[in-house]
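Lab notebook, design round three. We kept the backbone fixed and only want residue identities now. Task for the bench partner: fill in a sequence for the structure below.
Input structure tokens:
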């Protein structure tokens, strides 16, 4: 299926599991993909692991100047997807505020700056796919910062869909996804058991995969009649 043949798609933060699955799906669909990574070493690792029409540039989401420079180098393109972000879980009484500020900087401000600079170079009938999480709808202990920045992203995306029309802006809202981030959040020894426990309560009886989210991103990019929408990909977790 070459539904995105000759279309240029930018994916930020290519090192993450969801980003890599998204890039693979985009390449399968015939897209020319542009990726970012925080430094030259990470960028080289990503580019060496990919086959197809891929190019990349360094971008640090903590630096507005770096984000602007990235899009200056990219030039004109058709679609933007922004999965890059840092991660943390902590109850409010145990909050590490340095880590909390980094999530705001990468996931909220990083996406905002990416839209600010990137939208000037996207084709008129292109799209932007932002990222949130179902903790905006289903409370999970320790996820207050994810919920705060995710809720802000979803709300902003609806406004940007109105402001930037006919350019489309949507948000993908993943649930519990099995990615390399979990050992860092709950410890290497506890990641598998934590995900297994979550799978037992999710209606579809499993946690999500990066490819589940990548398929949703591809849908939001490809379907030109979907706009201002938050697409939940959580196996029904928010329902219980």
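Proposed sequence:
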């Amino acid at each position: 299926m070459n539904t995105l043949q000759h279309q240029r798609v930018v994916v930020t933060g290519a090192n993450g599991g969801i980003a890599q699955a998204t890039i693979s799906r985009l390449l399968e669909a015939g897209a020319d993909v542009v990726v970012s990574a925080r430094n030259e070493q990470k960028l080289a690792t990503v580019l060496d692991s990919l086959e197809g029409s891929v190019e990349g540039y360094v971008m640090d989401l903590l630096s507005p100047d770096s984000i602007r420079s990235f899009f200056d180098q990219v030039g004109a393109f058709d679609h933007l997807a922004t999965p890059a972000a840092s991660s943390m879980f902590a109850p409010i009484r145990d909050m590490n505020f340095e880590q909390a500020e980094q999530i705001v900087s990468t996931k909220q401000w990083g996406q905002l700056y990416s839209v600010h600079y990137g939208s000037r170079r996207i084709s008129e009938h292109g799209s932007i796919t932002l990222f949130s999480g179902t903790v905006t709808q289903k409370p999970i202990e320790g996820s207050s910062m994810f919920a705060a920045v995710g809720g802000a992203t979803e709300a902003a995306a609806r406004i940007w869909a109105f402001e930037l029309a006919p350019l489309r802006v949507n948000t993908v809202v993943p649930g519990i996804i099995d990615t390399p981030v979990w050992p860092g959040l709950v410890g290497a020894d506890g990641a598998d058991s934590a995900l297994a426990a979550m799978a037992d309560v999710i209606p579809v009886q499993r946690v999500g995969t990066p490819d589940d989210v990548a398929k949703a991103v591809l849908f939001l990019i490809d379907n030109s009649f979907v706009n201002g929408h938050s697409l939940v990909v959580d196996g029904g977790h928010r329902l219980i």
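Keep this in mind before ordering anything: Helices lie at 17-28, 40-49, 64-74, 97-118, 144-163, 181-186, 191-201, 210-222.
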